[in-house]
Write the structure tokens for this entry.
Amino acid sequence: MKHVTRMVYLACAAAVSLAVPQALTAQQRDFSDVRITPHHVAGTVYYLEGQGGHVVVSAGEDGIVMVDDQFAPLTDRIIAAIRTISSDDIRFLINTHVHPDHTGGNENIGRLGIPIMARDRVRVRLMASLPEIALPVVTFTDDISLHLNGEDMEVITLPPAHTDGDSYIYFRGSDVLAAGDVFRTVAFPVIDLNNGGSLDGTIEALGMAVGLAGPNTRIVPGHGVVSTRADVMEFRDMVIDVKAQVSEMVARGMTYQQVAAANPTARYNAKWGDPERFLTAVYAELGGGS
Ligand SMILES: [Zn+2]
């Protein structure tokens, strides 16, 4: 078990980076070449591509609502990109979850006097690494809605999935779902066990996205390309299949090395890449090695 625990810890780069001060994380990276590119999704909703999780923006008659803020050194460029969409006030920032590639700009945004909103658990976890000014000032434990820009922006609290503080934001009028990192198109799911994530919650949360979305809903992942309900279904079904395979292997007493060698993700690796981080989390959560 000790070996598996160590591997899980090493595999969770996002969790490890949370353990170091935010400033150090930013200093370790070179952001000088990062460009922030706005993309229109539908209706009032845009997303900004840069480095780290996508920033989702609703722009309309009441101003701007931002979802996530990448890294602190990018805040000026993010604001400049938003200014190419609208010159109106930024009314709120919502954090989809705790990770520093989604909350790294919070201190700068807080200093601009823009209220930050997130689940209670996000605030509690951020308190360990960020100053007061960077913390959410509005927190919630259940679903909430914002009514701006002619939208019902539904902030939907999820079961512990990518972390234990994940939210979706569904822009009902524009029919766009900002999925945070529960859904990514560039890799297998990241289940951050050190921040309370869970395999079953990931499956449930992906099912909630499938249930929320219609055939025309545009789904903006935390990382990757704008997707459809069918894409989320494919991703969820992959997770369910891998869980079933690994459950059976754990029941047969297989070690992590044996599971990895059996390659339960074989048919998915071409699409989602290196499965080790995902497989390690799945194995640990299913009780493998204990
Ligand atoms: Zn994340």
About this structure: The longest strand covers residues 151-157.
